[in-house]
Every structure is written in structure tokens, then in C-alpha cells.
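As a warm-up, study this chain.
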Amino acid sequence: MTTTTKKLNFAEFLQQYPDGKGIFELNVGRFLLFAFDDEIRRNNLSYITDKGILIKTSTCEGRERGRNPDVSVVSEVEWNSNVSCYAALTKPIQLAVEVVSTNWEDDYIDKLAEYQRLGIAEYWIVDYPSTQIVS
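Now compare it with the structure written out below.
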């Protein structure tokens, strides 16, 4: 079976975000990344935060998967031992954060199970569409 995916132009890509502008999800992830980074520096901890950390996981059937959490926190030792291999991390990271978008089933079901199988102890799901913002 062959499936073809239509390539999106930039305007179509932005429309795929729940808020229709592509801004809210990106800003939530960026806010968390900066907040974690600030705390790590303030407390002089040996962690790295990034949006580009790839993690090798597996499905319950044993099929290998690659995941890229919206925000990751990993020990400096683990990060520095893998930085030159250009591959996904195979050991658990300290924290994986997913900001829910249109693929919420992946975040709540598939990623949760895969992260648990890998041994990631802390997994946060930020489901901003279901929260109320009070000003």
C-alpha cells in the first residue's frame, strides 16, 4: 500500500495548528524550554533542554520508532556522549514534554506507552486547548 501526502505551503501549514495561526503551540513549547533552561542555570544543574532531541522508542509490537518531544530535558553526560553520533538517544531522558495539537491521540496513547517502555519517568502533556485562560 502506498500513501502519498500532499505537501503543504506555509499558509496551509499554519492552518494545521489548533489556533489557526500556528503561534500558541509554538509559544507554549518555547516558554517551557526557556523556563526549564532558566531553572537549570539558576540551580547550577547538569541538564540540557532542547526541542531537537530525538529519542529511539518502540511500539508494543517491538517496532522501532523515533520521537522528538516538543521539549526535552536530558543529563549533560548523556547528551555529550551522544552528540557526535547523529542518532537518537536510546536511554531514558529526564523529562519529555508534548504540547497537544491535532494529533492528541499520539500524545495521550502512543507516546505515553513508548516513553514508559523506554523508562522515561517524567512525561508531561500540556493540553492548552482544554484549559481556560483568565486575564
